[in-house]
Amino acid sequence: MPSQPEPSPPESRQPDPQRRSERSRRAILDATLDLCAEHGYGPVTVEAIAARAGVSKKTIYRWWPSKGAVVLEALHEAADPVSGFPDTGDLRADLLTQMEALLRGLLGSPRFGRALIGLIADTHHNVELAHGLQTVLFQPRIDDGRARLAKAREAGQISPDADLDLAMELLYGPVYYRLLLHQGDLHGGTELESLVDHALRALAP
Amino acid sequence: MPSQPEPSPPESRQPDPQRRSERSRRAILDATLDLCAEHGYGPVTVEAIAARAGVSKKTIYRWWPSKGAVVLEALHEAADPVSGFPDTGDLRADLLTQMEALLRGLLGSPRFGRALIGLIADTHHNVELAHGLQTVLFQPRIDDGRARLAKAREAGQISPDADLDLAMELLYGPVYYRLLLHQGDLHGGTELESLVDHALRALAP
To answer: Where does the HTH tetR-type domain start and stop, copy by copy (chains A, B) (predicted)?
Structure first.
């Protein structure tokens, strides 16, 4: 953006398009998750998001191709501070920390959970959105989990020939299975501990 | 279709309404899975099902409240001959038999797989359909799996205090995780054997 003006000092009356855009972008992402929490993903429209965020529909379509794409970006930003993998050296504790945060802070929160479930449903009718879900939301976090498990493997805490993809599926498969197939949400606590302990037993050296 | 003539058996001129209904019902269920295989679940309409099955829309709506309800019944019938749990006394072999059949005969088949994925997506916008998916399609089969695992537990093949719900989630969670989150289908063979072996290790006495 070579011709974009620099943030101007208070003396100036020049508007700051960069800053205004960021404010609109945040308002749009916030409005999107709020509306999904209130109504579920299905009934939310780009019109409703625009009205709630105080922007025009045109502004939204200038930045995103569809409602699903807005939801994807909103979820990606919301997940970032919560979904990281700690590394205290204690694999079991670190998995419990990450998965409790995922369950309580994200999947169990109406703002995040309802939007994510609706987005996942939508990806099964929309190849581009499926690609976005996979590459933007899931793959970077799966890679983080694999990296944490790889360190544990090097430290001899899991089997030296542990299959890290299978390890991630044993840990997270049951979480999404329950969420997506209406089998009752996993709430963390002793139920989560039991899942992690079983997965670690399956992967033990 | 009150005025449609039935092919009558040579001796009798009496129509057999029961038989005609069953023939229409089968035609509707077949047309539904065929259309889902060709177009995916999303674009299939009750109109298109009626046209393909040679019945009126009214006939379909007399028996089912929605497209999703037709798909649910079609999947339930298609799953029945394939999804049972054998009991040869060898738990590992029986799990592999059932899961290979599930993967190859159902989830991996376009006729069944595309309809199921679309239906699951639809259940996240439709509470009644979610209830139907759970009670008609999943719960009876989960109960069968639990019963097979309970026998294995009695026989001392898995831990006497094994949690059978968790056991089912360790086995089937990864399958649906990959299917529903676009993580690449599980194709059976050595990959499936590895999953079953890890789950059994987690559940070992």
So the answer is: 22-82
Where do we find the tokens 């606590």? Answer: A189
> What residue in A sits closest to B129 (Cα-Cα)?
A182
* Cross-chain residue pair A177–B176, CB shorter than 8 Å: yes
Tokens of A164: 């890290």
For residue A183, the Cα-to-chain-centroid distance in whole angstroms is: 21
* Mean pLDDT score of chain A: 91
Within an 8 Å CB–CB cutoff, is residue A40 touching chain B?
yes
How many angstroms away from the CA of A71 is the closest CA of chain B?
A: 16
Nearest-angstrom CA–CA distance, B136 and B20: 25
- Judge: B121–A125 Cβ closer than 8 Å, yes or no: yes
Summarize the confidence of residues A128-157 as an average pLDDT. 96
- Cα gap A53→B90, rounded to integer Å: 60
Q: pLDDT, tens digit, for every residue of B133-161?
A: 999 999 999 999 999 999 999 999 999 99
pLDDT at residue A20, rounded to an integer: 65
Is the minimum CB–CB distance between B180 and chain A shorter than 8 Å?
Answer: yes
List Cβ neighbours of B171 (8 Å cut-off, separation of 6 or more): B95, B99, B145, B195, B196, B199
Q: How far apart are CA A78 and CA A82, in angstroms?
A: 8
DSSP, collapsed to helix, strand or coil, labels residue B33 as: helix
SS3 (DSSP) at A135: helix
A138 phi and psi, to 5 degrees?
Answer: -90, -50
Q: Which residue has the higher pLDDT, B188 or A11?
A: B188
A:117-146 residues touching chain B, CB 8 A cutoff:
117-118, 120-125, 130-131, 133-134, 138
Indicate whether B16 pLDDT > 80.
no
Partner residue facing B170 (CB), from A180, A183, A198: A198
What chain B holds in terms of domains, given with CATH numbers, is 17-67 (1.10.10.60), 75-203 (1.10.357.10)
Residues 6+ apart with CB under 8 A from B90: none
Contact assessment for residue A118 and residue A202, using Cβ atoms and an 8 Å cutoff: no
DSSP category for residue B150: H
Give the residue, B13 or A8, on which the prediction is more confident: B13
ipTM passes above 0.95 = no
Whether the per-residue pLDDT at A107 is higher than 70: the answer is yes
Chain A residues lying within 8 Å of B174, measured CB to CB = 166, 169-170, 173
Residue B189 to chain A, least CA–CA distance (Å): 14
